[in-house]
Amino acid sequence: MAAVLAAELLKLRTARSTSVVLALVAVIAALGVLMAASGANAFDAAGAAERSRWAAVAPIEQEYLAFWQVCLAVLGALAVTAEYGSGMIRTTLAAVPRRGAVLAAKAGAVGALALAAGAVAVVGTHVAVRAVLGDRPFDAYTAPMAETVPLLAALSAAAAVAALVGLGAGVLLRSTAGAIVAAVALIFAPPMIARFLAEPWADRVAAGSLTGLPAQIAGTAPDPVLGPVAAGAVLAAYAVAALAAGAVALHRRDV
Fold first, then answer.
1. How many domains does the chain have?
2. Second label for 91, Cα 20 to 30 Å away, from 104, 143, 183, 208?
3. What is the pTM of this model?
């Protein structure tokens, strides 16, 4: 199993698409820092009442999570659909006939890289924004760094889960476009649908989304629907469900 995982890590690391996706993750982080700089200037020019509204905004890394999730979902999808497109999947399965082991290795490689990339992006953005804002009283950036760790960890985990969802969708659909569309819909559709629902369903749908779960896991959501443990279980369920669907398809279908 270790050899299979090492092979999948090598394929993922040497794929050109991986470099492109990670570059996009970095660009999004840079845009977040630029937005913080613009917000700092607007804060300085605002009156007292307006400043109080600015101070209560959610952290930028939380607002940008969905965009990182899309990038990493693409990474996960391409980890398998590129092999289907090139025919390399036949070579992979000939070398490792146990299809479950192949999928587990791909999930391990994608999950590890996505978690690392997500953590660097989330933590890097938070630290950079904190430096840009200085002593301005933005609630999300004036708390001690140690108090922000749970949210940063939850955001990083949610980014990795999106990559695993993309991988599962890629195995299930065997199509890069289809897998990306499915992952993007899963990321953006629930919060959008929630806006058109009456209470309490609006809050429930939004709370169960891939972007709504991290704050509940960290205990920073203003009006949580789920407790930290339940929210963590729902987040894990996204990855488990996607990979389980992919595993069933991989075992039942010919290559």
1. 1
2. 183
3. 0.92
